[in-house]
Amino acid sequence: MGMGFVVGVFGAVILAHAAYSTIQYRALLKIVEEEFSRPPINVVVELLLGLVFCMWAALTVPGKFLSILPHSEQNRIVSLPANLDFMIFNHRGKVFPLEMDLKLKH
After folding, report:
1. Which residues does 69 contact at the CB level (< 8 Å), separation at least 6?
2. Which of 20, 25, 51 lies closest to 38, judged by CA?
């Protein structure tokens, strides 16, 4: 478990706490019979902080991007499936024109 994963879990916990705080705040407003206009500023700060943590974790946890090698045999389809009975060529795509020379009307 890396640091990015821990930060992501922490961000999710912060987001869950902000949601719970908002629910509690709305329940309190119902008791005192006031209208809900917006959440308190501390909940908004929690939401932004949780968003930043979750975004940072989402960008760092998956790892490094690998380049796609165009001449590699691993990313090539070598042959068609043996059973060609399920290949469908009669579908809704034939309704669209082949050439898309559409011009905007002014």
Report:
1. 75
2. 25
Q: Are 4 and 60 in contact (CB under 8 A)?
A: yes
pLDDT tens sequence across 68-93: 776 666 655 555 566 667 776 777 77
Per-residue pLDDT tens digits for 4-17: 889 999 999 999 99
* Contact (CB, 8 A) for 42 and 48: no
Closest CA to 20 of 48, 39, 41: 39
Whole-number Å distance between alpha carbons of 56 and 62? 11
Q: Distance (Å, rounded) from C-alpha 80 to C-alpha 36?
A: 60
User: What tokens were used for 69?
Assistant: 């090698």
